[in-house]
Amino acid sequence: MLRTIVCDDEAPALELIESMLRDTGEVSIEGAYLSILDAIDRINAGGIDLAVLDVEMPELTGVEASERILAYPKPLIVFATAHPEYAVEAFGIDAIDYVLKPFDRHRIAKAVEKAIRLHTLIEESEQEVQDEGEDSRADPPAMLRIRDAGRYYFIPHGDVLWIEAAGDYSLLHTREKEAAIRRTIKSLENDLPEERFVRVHRSSIVSVEHIREIRMLHKGEAQIILTDDTIVRSSRSYREVIQKLIDDL
């Protein structure tokens, strides 16, 4: 069960999303707040896995509120909004997902499902760091060297198919497994060799050697098909990057 808090400054919306979250059977509601300041205080007290926050609130926006969260580890965040344009801002900061108003039970369930998946991966990956960290050696060549919880472990560059942003975390996808680490995608981008990895979306990095096909879509968007048949979508703001990929491949 994910320990969850919910915040919306409109009582009917708060009651509705709280009810829908409970109905998933996957969360434990630790608090439902009309005030974002009260919600932040509860989060910073610790022990919260997931926070579902309205984007538009009078005291602070959900985005501003996320910047005041000091708890460690920081909970996964889902933003709720009536305006789809806020999705770009949400994913650009630290939300793992967003849900649109009026709320839909299926969409709420999908957001919870994603949060559970990420939470499980984070716990498993951090345990793996503790189990393997004692055997850390000198940084081998062509390895992604990951430091987490004071330990180190290594994933060969060639094994990484793509990397997905998840707020304050990143998901590394290989053919065999997924690993979640507490590092932002921007941090990883700075460490990876640019000749082997390229960022194609504000939430995605792909391995150049694992690109099988690129399909251009309308308005400068593209689909990148990887060697394991995963499809990673590129946004139009990265169309110059995609064009360079096409020219170089």
Task: Outline the structure in words.
The chain is an alpha/beta fold. It contains seven helices and 15 strands. The chain has helices at 11-23, 36-44, 62-66, 86-93, 105-132, 185-191, 239-248; strands at 2-7, 27-33, 50-54, 76-81, 97-100, 143-148, 151-156, 162-166, 169-173, 178-181, 197-201, 204-207, 211-216, 222-226, 231-234. The termini are far apart.
Keywords:
15 strands; globular; 249 residues; alpha/beta; five-stranded antiparallel sheet
Give a short summary of the structure.
By secondary structure, the chain is α/β, with parallel strands linked by helices.
Order of helices and strands: EHEHEHEHEHEEEEEHEEEEEH
Distance between the ends = 45 Å
- Number of beta strands: 15
Shape: globular
Count of alpha and pi helical runs: 7
Helix/strand layout:
Layout: E1 2-7, H1 11-23, E2 27-33, H2 36-44, E3 50-54, H3 62-66, E4 76-81, H4 86-93, E5 97-100, H5 105-132, E6 143-148, E7 151-156, E8 162-166, E9 169-173, E10 178-181, H6 185-191, E11 197-201, E12 204-207, E13 211-216, E14 222-226, E15 231-234, H7 239-248
Parallel strand pairs: 1-2, 1-3, 3-4, 4-5
Antiparallel strand pairs: 6-7, 8-9, 8-12, 9-10, 11-12, 13-14, 14-15
